[in-house]
Amino acid sequence: MLRVEAVDTYYAETRILKEVSFTVGPGQIVAILGRNGAGKTTLLRSIMGLTPPRSGKIRFQDRDITGLPTYAIAALGIGYVPQGRHIFPRLSVAENLRLGALMRRSGPPTVPAEVFEHFPILKERLAQPGGTFSGGEQQMLAIARALVGEPELMLLDEPSEGLQPTVVELMTGIIQRVRRDREVSILLVEQNLGFARDLADHYYVMESGTVVLQGPARELENEEAVTQYLAV
Fold first, then answer.
1. CA 158, CA 225: separation in Å to the nearest integer?
2. pLDDT, tens digit, 9 for 90 and up, residues 136-190
3. Among 11, 136, 180, 212, which is 20 to 30 Å from 123 by CA?
4. Please, are residues 184 and 175 in contact by the beta-carbon 8 Å criterion?
5. Coil, helix or strand for 87?
6. Residue 217 vs residues 26, 199, 205, 221, 230: alpha-carbon distances, Å
7. Mode of pairing for the β-strands spanning 29-33 and 202-207
């Protein structure tokens, strides 16, 4: 589904990512773990073409997407939920979702009814401005907006950030159902080890722009091997 091969990304002359390599298989949830400044968000931005790599390759479904413009990458079937949600606060829920629907590759740009099966609260508040929602509700709207574009791969940047434990538990169930029902692959950037452990099939740990540890998610039960790279 996704293959990142020896990617180097710079901001001006500062090297942020250093030969980063990993894969995401069909239907997999892969977690990228690491503390602030490890390069996790830059990695997602590199995949989406927002901060193009200076060297290395990014392949999606065996197609080289390295250096493609962001709109072209999204049109191939990659949905992106950035850190901080980035919904349109003055637009209604319905308007936010219709913008996401413009990325649909089959049928008219309408919002599929099945999206509301995952997010019933959004159906109840279609006319409400997104900016009036709580943090957890905004995160649901951001994920739903990406989902209506019918992605085959979703990139989620810190979806549990700032959420109460009960909302994190709710978000865990939603992401699990989305993966199961839509057969979508998910690349999850997180600092919340428990959240990642409950969702992921495989994990990679980043430090200073480099992958320093990886393995099947069941290894996260032994937190000592990972927490040394997550502690502030």
1. 21
2. 889 889 988 988 888 999 999 988 887 888 888 888 888 888 888 888 999 999 9
3. 180
4. no
5. coil
6. 16, 8, 11, 8, 16
7. parallel
